[in-house]
Amino acid sequence: MLVFIIFILTIAGLIRYQQRPAMVFGVAFMVLFASNAVSANDVLNSMSNQGLLTLVLLMLCSLALEKTRLLRLIATKVLHQSYLQTWFRLFGITATTSAILNNTAVVSTMLAPIRNNPYHPASKLLLPLSYAAILGGTLTLVGTSTNLIVNSLVLDFGLPSLKFFDFTKVGLMLVVACGLTLLICNRWLPAYQQTAGESKSYFIDAKVLGGSSLIGQSIQQNGLRHLESLFLVEIVRNGQLISPVTPTERLQENDRLIFSGDINKVMQLSQFDGLKTFAHDNGLPLNNLTEVVVRPESNLLGQTLKKVGFRAKFDAAVVAIRRDGQRISGKLGDSKVMAGDALVLAVGPDFKNRQNLQKNFIVVSGHEPEVMLSGYKELLTCFGFLGTILLSACGVVSLFKGVCLLLGVLLICNCLSVSEILRRFPVDIWLIIATALVLSQAMSNAGGQQVLEHLVQHYLNDLSPLTAVIVVYILTWLLTELVTNNAAAALLFPVALGLSEALGANNTAFIMAVAFGASASFISPYGYQTNLMVFNAGKYKLSDFVKIGAPVSIVYGITTITGIYWVYAYSQYALSLNKYNVTDWKSNA
Question: Is residue 153's pLDDT more than 50?
Answer without folding.
Answer: yes
